[in-house]
Amino acid sequence: MVSEEDLSVAAMHRIIKKAGAERVSESGAKELARVLEEIGLKIGKDALEFSMYAGRKQSKEKTLRSRQRNS
Amino acid sequence: MVSEEDLSVAAMHRIIKKAGAERVSESGAKELARVLEEIGLKIGKDALEFSMYAGRKQSKEKTLRSRQRNS
Predict the structure, then answer these.
(1) Which of A48, B49, B61, B68 could pair covalently with A31 via S-S, beta carbons 3.0-4.6 A apart?
(2) How far, in Å, CA of A69 to CA of B47, rounded?
């Protein structure tokens, strides 16, 4: 479970507006935060499995980048 | 282009650690921010298209939720 403070609702508003939206509902911004946190957690877990398989304890850039396609 | 301040690197560290990682490299956290911002922008644009098709100017929760599967 990812807590609400991980991704700020203000950041979600900015991203959705950057996507071209004129207005964003508060619950819409919260929903995007929930979705992105879920995806981030999935990518993180996937990258961790790969790192451990490679005998590393650290989640590195290349592993996180390579795992985005599968999430 | 999404600017760096949209998603905090600290939040990425928390998410990756929540995924179980013992250690997270700085560039790894930045990479996750880049990936999630990209996905967020994609979901936002997709949701906007749907909202406009429905004659709405606001990106709402249900639209953002329904578009996550396609991003």
Answers:
(1) B61
(2) 21
